């Protein structure tokens, strides 16, 4: 596939004759990665536009209000760097919210 063919496919996506998903699947089948194929569309000005941002609707239980936690012994520090015990570690986890917990050996 030549550059001219890719530009023609991008133009087809721009006109709506070719869906974005089909465009990306074709380029992936040629050996390009999906993010690279998507970037070709972004650079050509055919970025996918979100209609409207989703509106936040709180669920019934909690209703988006204050979060209350009950510990057997309440945390005294919310700074994870100064946390010395389990109670402080658990209390301070809510602020930085790590993606994966770690355990000391």
Number of helices: 4
Gross morphology is elongated
Major sheet characteristics:
none
Helix content: 25-40%
Mean pLDDT: 83
Structural class, from helix and strand content? mainly alpha
Low-confidence runs: none
Query: How many domains, in number, for the residues?
Result: 2
Task: Give the number of DSSP strands.
Answer: 0
Query: What is the straight-line distance between the termini?
Result: 55 Å
Give, in order, the helices and strands.
Answer: HHHH
Beta fraction: under 5%
| Computed Rg | 25 Å
Please outline what is shown here.
This protein is mostly helical. The chain contains four helices and no strands. The relative contact order is 0.08.
Q: Keywords for this structure?
A:
105 residues, mainly alpha, elongated
Please describe the topology of this protein.
Blueprint (H helix, E strand, L loop, with lengths): L2 H13 L4 H10 L4 H10 L42 H7 L13
């Amino acid at each position: 596939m030549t550059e001219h063919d890719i530009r023609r496919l991008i133009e087809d996506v721009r006109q709506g004759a070719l869906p974005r998903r089909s465009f990306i699947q074709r380029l992936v089948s040629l050996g390009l990665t999906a993010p690279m194929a998507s970037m070709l569309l972004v650079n050509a000005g055919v970025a996918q536009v979100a209609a409207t941002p989703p509106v936040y609707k709180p669920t019934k239980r909690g209703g988006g209000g204050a979060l209350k936690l009950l510990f057997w012994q309440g945390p005294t520090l919310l700074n994870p760097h100064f946390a010395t015990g389990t109670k402080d570690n658990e209390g301070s986890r809510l602020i930085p919210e790590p993606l994966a917990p770690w355990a000391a050996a």
